Structure formats: C-alpha cells, structure tokens
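for the writeup, i need someone to sanity check this before i put it in the appendix. the sequnce is what the collaborator sent (i think, or maybe the updated version? ugh). structure was predicted straight from it, no edits. if anything looks off just tell me and ill rerun, i have time this weekend
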Amino acid sequence: MSSIFNRLRRGGLALLALLLVLPALAAGAPVLPAVAKARLPHDPSAFTQGLFYRDGVFYESTGLYGRSSLRRVDPATGRVLAGRELPRELFGEGLAQVGDVLYQLTWREGRVLLADPADLSPRGELPLPTEGWGACALDGKLVVSDGSDKLFFYDPKTMAALGSVAVTDDGRPVPRLNELEIVAGRIWANVWGDNRIAVIDPATGRVAAWVDCSGLRPGTVAVDFENVLNGIAHDPATGRVWVTGKRWPEIYEIVVPGLPTGGAPLSGLGGGAKP
C-alpha cells in the first residue's frame, strides 16, 4: 500500500512541476544559458529569500518561521559578518537598500522591516499592503513582487503606492514573480518553481529574455518545491552577477553570453516603448 501511495505522490509532484513550467515553455522571449564563472561558499541552512551586493559584501534575507534572519555575508568565505534573527512570528522575504536604509519584506505579515546596513540594527517598520516576495530598488523607488504577475512600485519613505506593471512574455502573463534585482537597467526576477530568471523591462513589464540556470543546481541539493533557485545579486561597477538558491551550498558568479550586465541598457532583446 505504501509503495502505491509513494508512486501516486511522485506522479502528483511530477504533474504539478509540469503545470508550473508549461506557461514558461510557451514563452516567446529568447532563452540564454547561464554559465558558471566562479563558485562561492554559501550557508546550506540559509533559506534564501533576498540577496544583493553592496560595498564588497552580500546582504541576505532568509525565511521560514522561527528561522528568518537578516545577514551581512563575506562573499569569499561565506562567513556571516553580522546577523540578526527576526521574531518567530515573521517570515523574512525580499531585501533591498534604498539610500542608507535596508528594506526587508515579510511574507504574510504586512510589514516591511527597516534596518541600518552598517550594523543591521532596526530602524522601524512600514506597512506592506500585499504579500511580500521579492524586492529591489529602482530610481529611488522600492519595487515589490507578491507572487503574482505584477510588480508594485512604492515610495520607500511612506510605502505609498506609485503604480504597478503586469509582467508578460509575448503577451502571456508571467506569474509567481519572486526575488528581484536590477541588472543593467532591467529587473531580473526569479520565478518560483522555474529554473529561469525573467529579464524584465520595468517600464512595460515585457520579458526581454530568460536566463536559464538549470545547469547550476548543486547535485547535493534535493529536488523539491522548497530548495529552488532564488537569490540574485549584481555589482554595477563590474557587471558581475551572482545567483543562488534556498539551502544551496554555493553562490554562483555567472556570465550570460549575449546579455549585457554592465551599466548599458539591453538592446535587441525586445522591450521597447510602452504602447
């Protein structure tokens, strides 16, 4: 009986995985493979929800109730240089810095936690009207994803809504938008359950390209719906890009042939003016 149950369970998981990736398979934007240039150590217990690079270090938000944290991490060694645990009732999510303030989202608690990037000390909080998934900073605004196909733009001082954009690929909605990062003027977005990163024109919401990271998953990480690709960091000074996943033991510096990651905007990969 147990073997029959296990087979049914595996079949159900396979069907769910297929349903998750079918919309992306029908997408029209070009798919570009990510190539690992270097590997950096990463805490394999870190349930990575947010990641960015600033002033030579990684800032990381980790999730799960009772285990969520805010961290500053040495890229070369993976050592946590400073860390602060979140209250047990909070689930840490996306992370961004606007000005001299860190903004850490919470999942379903309706709170944005503010912190000092120097020592991670609390600096108050603001309300969040949606679920919190991913975050990044763009032109002084806080950009937030909530697991839908939309990106929301907020005034970081008050969290007043400034607008939103629906993300599409060849006219099709792209749901489950997760962790966000700005790379060369575009928003790179993890998509929950997908091994690819959407490269999005923030003005139109159109996907200009997909970065395929399927070849990066460490063999030591179990294949399930938790230990997924999630976490993007970028150094605009050098154009370097790093990606990781939840409970992954490594952070990968990647290059994407044909896709600029420096200061210049994308060209020849779709997007364009808002219709």
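The first helix runs from residue 2 to 25. The mean pLDDT is 87.
thx in advance!!
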